[in-house]
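Forum > Structural Biology > Help requests

Title: Can anyone predict the 3D structure of Non-specific phospholipase C2?

Hi all, first post here. I have the sequence for Non-specific phospholipase C2 but no way to get a structure on my laptop. I'd be grateful if someone could post the C-alpha cells.
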Amino acid sequence: MSSKNINSPTNVVGQLIFLILIGNHYYYWAVADSPIKTVVVLVMENRSFDHMLGWMKKLNPEINGVDGSESNPISTTDPKARRILFGDRSHYVDPDPGHSFQAIREQIFGSNDSSKNPAPMNGFAQQALSMDSNMPEQVMNGFQPDMVAVYKTLVSEFAVFDRWFASVPASTQPNRLYVHSATSHGATSNNASLLAKGYPQRTIFDNLDDAGINFGIYYQNIPATLFYRNLRKLKYIGKFHPYDLTFKNDAKSGKLPGYVVVEQRYMDSKLQPANDDHPSHDVYQGQMFVKEVYETLRASPQWNQTLLVITYDEHGGFFDHVPTPVSGVPNPDGIIGEPFDFKFDRLGVRVPTIMISPWIEKGTVVHGPNGSPFPTSEYEHSSIPATVKKIFDLPSPFLTKRDEWAATFEHILQTRKEPRTDCPDKLPTPTKIRKAEANEDANISEFQQELVQLAAVLKGDHLLTSYPEKIGKKMTVREGKAYMEDAVKRFFEAGFSAKKIGVDEEQIVQMRPSLTTRSSTNLHP
Ligand SMILES: *[C@@H]1O[C@H](CO)[C@@H](O)[C@H](O)[C@H]1NC(C)=O
Ligand SMILES: *[C@@H]1O[C@H](CO)[C@@H](O)[C@H](O)[C@H]1NC(C)=O
Ligand SMILES: *[C@@H]1O[C@H](CO)[C@@H](O)[C@H](O)[C@H]1NC(C)=O
Ligand SMILES: *[C@@H]1O[C@H](CO)[C@@H](O)[C@H](O)[C@H]1NC(C)=O
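Reply #1:
Sure, ran it for you. C-alpha cells for Non-specific phospholipase C2 below:
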C-alpha cells in the first residue's frame, strides 16, 4: 500500500474500527478471564465499622479506624457538655440502640438539620442518651480485635473495605433490599402493606436467571429474600435450600451455584442461638457462623473460583467517625419516601465489609473508589449487584441509577496470575461473650416481627386481619420461630405441589389461612 493512502478518509475509518475492536476485545477478554464463578453473600446485622473493626487500626495503621481520640458530646447544643471518648470495651450489648430514620439523622448531624456537609457524626451519644442512660457508653465503644478473632484473621489475610456505607440512613429492611436490587422501592422502614404484596422491583436474581446463571439461597429460620415478590414465583422455589441440610454438602460436592446468599438464624433459641450479630444476640455466635461458612468454602473444590462478601446491613446506632456522604448520591428510581419526602440522595453510616478469596492479596485495605465510575461514586450495598454484573458479564441493564453509580470491586481479584495457596484452612475459635442462655420468652424485636409478618403472608394468615402491621406483636421469640418455620415449610411444600401439577411458573402460591393451625390471638391487635 502506498503511503499517500494512509491519511485517506477510508483509512481513518478503518483505524477507528480497529481501535473499537481492540477495545471490545480487551473488554471481553477481561470478563471471560474472571476467575470467580461463585459469589457468596452474607449480610450481618446492625453494627458500625468502628464498633466491629475500628480498633484493627492498631494491627494495620493503613485501616481508617480509631485510636481512642474520637468522641461525641452528650449534648450537641451545649458547648460545655461532657464528651464520651470512643473506647475498646464492647462486650455484650442489650438493649438495641436506635436506628430509625429519625434516630440516624440525629446521630449523623447532631440535630434535625440534615444540611451540614460534611456530616459532623456528633449525635450518637446524645441520641443514645435519649433512649437509656447507659446507652451512650455502649454506642461509643468498639471490640478489641481479639474479641472478634475471626474478623481479626480475615482482615489480615484478605481484604477489608474501610469506606463502605449502608445504602440508606435507615433500618434493616431498606438496606437489605439494596443488596440485591439497588433500591428499597421507596421504603425507609418496614411497610406492612408493601411487605404483604412483596417488594416489586427487579433484582440481581432475575438478571442472573435471564443470563442462565444459577443462584441459591441457603436459609435458616426464614429467607428474608422472600421480601422480594419475584422470588416467591414458582420458577424460583427450587433455589431455596435449608442451610443446615444442604450448604456443607453442596460446597463439598462442588455444587454451589454462581450466586449464593447465606442467611443466618434471626431467632435466638437455646439449642440454636441467633447468629446474625443483631443486639442482643451474641457476637460470638455471629463469629462462629462466619467461621463455619469460611471453613466450608475453604474446603470446597470450588474454593479457587469463590469470592465471599461479608457486610452489615446498617450501623445499628453505633458510632462511626467517617462522615456519611450527603451529596452526589443518585436517587435510584425516582421514588420519594417517607418521612420528610426523603429523596434517597444520601447514604447511611459506614459499615464493616470484608472480602475473601484466594485471588485477593493478603492484608488488602480498600479505601474509596477514587472517582470511578462517577466522580462521587462510593462503595455501598449496590456495589454488590454492580460488581456481580461485571463478574458474570450480565447483559441486562443496571437495576437502577444507584448500581450504575456505585463503585465496583472486581479489581481486587485481578492482581494475581494464580490463586493463593497459603489461605488458612481454619479460623480461630472466638471466646463466648454472652454468659446467659437465649431467652426464648422474650418479646420479639421489630425486625423479628417483620419476619413474622412475612411468614404470615406466606401462610395466608395476613388475609385474616385488617391490621397487618400488628401481626406478631404479641409473640415471644419461641412462638415466632415456630410460626415462621412452619410457614416456610408449608409455602415450599405447596409450591412444589403446584409445580408438579404444571401451574405456570410465573405464578405465586397464595395459601388459604388455616384457622386450626395457629392461635388467632397472635394475629389480631
Ligand atoms: C427533631 O425531630 C424529632 C422527631 O422527628 C422531634 O421529636 C424533635 O422534637 C425534633 N427536635 C427539634 C429540636 O426540632
Ligand atoms: C407503603 O407503601 C405504599 C405503596 O408504595 C404507600 O402508598 C404507603 O404510603 C406506604 N406506607 C407507609 C407507612 O410508608
Ligand atoms: C487451587 O489452586 C492452587 C494453585 O493453582 C492449587 O495448588 C490447588 O490445588 C487448587 N485447589 C483446588 C481446590 O482446586
Ligand atoms: C412484652 O410485651 C408485653 C406487651 O405485649 C409487655 O406487657 C411485657 O412487659 C413485655 N415484656 C418484656 C420483657 O419486655
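Residues 443, 474 surround 2-acetamido-2-deoxy-beta-D-glucopyranose (ligand 4) (CB under 6 Å). Confidence is low (pLDDT under 50) at residues 1-32, 516-525.
Shout if anything looks off.
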